[in-house]
Design brief:
- Pathway: Cofactor biosynthesis; riboflavin biosynthesis.
- This protein is an alpha/beta fold.
- It contains seven helices and eleven strands.
- It has one domain (about 30-255): 3-Layer(aba) Sandwich (Dihydrofolate Reductase, subunit A).
- About 20% of the residues lie in helices and about 25% in strands.
- The strands form two sheets. Strands 6-5-4-3-7-1-8-11-10 form a nine-stranded mixed β-sheet, sandwiched between helices.
- The structure holds NADPH dihydro-nicotinamide-adenine-dinucleotide phosphate and the ligand Nc1nc(O)c(N)c(N[C@@H]2O[C@H](COP(=O)(O)O)[C@@H](O)[C@H]2O)n1.
- Ligand LIKH6CAM binds next to helix 2, helix 3 and strand 7.
């Protein structure tokens, strides 16, 4: 048993079987989209004022990191970046050279991304030496002043200007954006506004749902006042979900669903 395994008994050396139900590395020519989040029993994903809450237990958190490693990219909204200051890496996984972190994508229409973000500092510090630390790519509106775009590029990020629709990045534009960026899959982690936007998105032009899979971790706890999975007032016309599989990982229930 390695020293790492001794220090972390939950450190699985191979991915949990539940992840075989999603196939982001499949043969499909279109980008594969997984929507995922962790929630409490009262359907909250964060505390009051957006305070980050650790909902996932060690086993389901590890599953999330394995899931990250199976996708080409990972996407969060700018509020999640500002509130959580996440790294979006696979630091819970074994030190195996075949494993790499997904490419971080931040949806940030107005380019509010701070130059002090942890994810950017980690990238600058790594100087591209590790497959586990990736350069953050920020998708911003194509109206954003070039001086501001240059400021972020000089700070180390890649800025990708895209057309906006009603001030937002249209979820249905994402597959084409991913293809243009040579990314064949994305794991969308949140937050609430992003989850709602993708769950409400119309189907792709071929009639199939925009989102291929929904993976939800339900933690046995209540948050009370906090950020709901879906923002207040946006709960109408939610898609119908079909459960593919539910499994307990440690204390949590993990559900794999598809939109029908
Ligand atoms: N438990 C979990 O699994 C997770 C929890 N979280 C939590 O979620 C919270 C943040 O959620 P929330 O405040 O809703 O913010 P989001 O992280 O969802 O970011 C929303 C922002 O993204 C930008 N945006 C770009 N395109 C879109 C689009 N199509 N639809 C919606 N927004 C778009 C907008 O920026 P602009 O306003 O500049 O136009 C918008 O305000 C945090 O508290 C975080 O802790 C986050 C991820 C996972
Ligand atoms: N799977 C999961 N469980 C939780 O309990 C969470 N709070 C989250 N949050 C998401 O993970 C991001 C932080 O991850 P890193 O610290 O960067 O590894 C956070 O920003 C949310 O996207 N997820």
């Amino acid at each position: 048993m390695s020293v790492l395994t001794l220090h972390n008994p939950h450190r699985m050396v191979s991915p949990p079987a539940i992840l075989d139900l999603i196939s982001p590395r499949g043969e499909s020519s279109r980008p594969y989209v997984t929507l995922t989040w962790a929630q409490s029993l009262d359907a909250k994903i964060a505390g009051e004022g957006g305070k980050r809450v650790i909902l996932s237990g060690p086993e389901s958190m590890l599953m999330t990191h394995w899931m990250r490693s199976r996708h080409d990219s990972i996407l969060v909204g700018i509020n999640t970046l500002l509130l959580d200051d996440p790294r979006l890496q696979i630091n819970l996984l074994p030190d195996d050279p075949s494993l790499s972190s997904p490419q971080p994508l931040i949806l940030d229409p107005q380019l509010r991304f701070p130059t002090t973000a942890r994810i950017l500092a980690a990238w600058r510090d790594s100087q591209g030496r590790s497959r586990r630390v990736r350069q953050p790519w920020i998708l911003c509106g194509d109206h954003v002043a070039s001086a501001r775009q240059k400021e972020m590029a000089d700070a180390g990020a890649r800025v990708v200007p895209v057309p906006l629709s009603h001030g937002r990045i249209n979820p249905n534009d994402l597959p084409d954006i991913l293809t243009r960026l040579n990314l064949s899959s994305v794991m969308i982690e949140g937050g609430s506004a992003i989850l709602s936007s993708f769950l409400h998105a119309p189907s792709r032009s071929d009639g199939t749902p925009l989102v291929d899979n929904v993976v939800i971790t339900v933690a046995p706890m209540f948050i009370g006042k906090g950020v709901g999975v879906i923002p207040e007032g946006q709960g109408d016309s939610m898609p119908e979900l079909q459960t593919v599989h539910t499994e307990t990982l440690g204390k949590d229930a993990v559900m794999v669903c598809r939109i029908v």
